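user: Kindly work through both lines:
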Amino acid sequence: MPQTRSKHLHVSIAILSRAPVPGQTKTRLIPALGAEGAADLHRRFLHATVRTALQANLGLVTLWCTPDTSHPEFAACAALGPLTLRQQAEGDLGQRMLATISGPTLIIGTDCPALTPAHLQQAANALSENDAVLIPAEDGGYVLIGLRQPEPAIFTDINWGTALVLASTRQRLRDIGYSWRELPTLWDVDEPADLTRLALSHPELISTESSGQ
């Protein structure tokens, strides 16, 4: 049920990421970048996302890793600032996200270079006045969800990876009587067509190796 609200929430940030192993991450970008290039882009996204989370100066930042925390790039991220490494839970994406929540938490992935520290701060402020907060993605999903407490219904029986994720999540929030706020829609990088936009907006994330040039 909806929670009593406070203006002074201590909000944590949970980042979910795969290890940047060639052939196992950013697979939809492999036709454009090759396996090594796609993994290198994921590595760049991972580091950029960790920096963004740390620069938001909110609460604890945890990097939830899969298949485990042993990849050297995860250790490199931990060297960027106060960051905790944890292994992701078993199950689908919803179960893995749910497992990150023990109190007010903002959950993000590493696919949205447009996400800034200011977005995270705005989301934390919104969560202080609502039961949930969302940043929609242009593809019908979301790039951030924030909750004040774990609520399994929000993550159960969702068709993850489809254009129905955001609409289904909104309906779940309505069904359980949650209030929520949505911040302006952002874009993420999932398909080769997204790389042109990425090169224009964030050229520092495109290396000559990963762009095939």
